[in-house]
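Example record

The entry below shows one chain as it appears in the dataset: sequence first, then structure tokens.
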Amino acid sequence: MGWLLLLLLAVASLGLLWGLGVRGGLLTASAAALFLGASGYALQGRPGVPGAPAAAGEGHNIVPLTDARHAFYGHFTPAESWLRISEALARDGKSEDAVGVLQNAVKRYPGDPQLWVGLGNALVDHARGLTPPAELAFQRAAQMAPGHPGALFFYGLALARSGDRQGAVAQWQRILMTAPKDAEWRPLVEQGVAALSEPPRGGAR
């Protein structure tokens, strides 16, 4: 079933790119990245291991991961195919395989901050909370792209998904202090701050 999912995902992704008018070398590069991602899963994935669905967590409801990723990094990046495969596996409850795909990706492309952010997110999913390895992944991403708000935002989201509402708000307020007013991702951060600043449903903060 996992292999069929990978094949369908690859075909659908290439079809979408074709429909958007992507041709020539860019389409070839995209296809190569897709198959590299599939190869990474073949090397690192463990399709025979039963998956345990990770808890969705509060942060998932506030800011969907894929939407946030596209707002901060764009839709067409070298990391996109790896991240799509990992996220598809995570949605299917295969969080360990999702981590494996991105571990292989950062070994191949250790200088890509978006892949490190994705690995951090996948590790949070798998552990159902923020762990030292996930924190290290977010730190690596921040070091590779100084001044870019992506790593700080997703670290805050990981805090929110781990139950630390105040910690997440503090991280996101740091971003808003220097965020351009016309930044595409600014409303996303403001939405998250507003949502987490409200009292939790249980009443106690």
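Notes for this example: The chain has a mean pLDDT of 79. Residues 95 and 145 are 26 Å apart (CA to CA).
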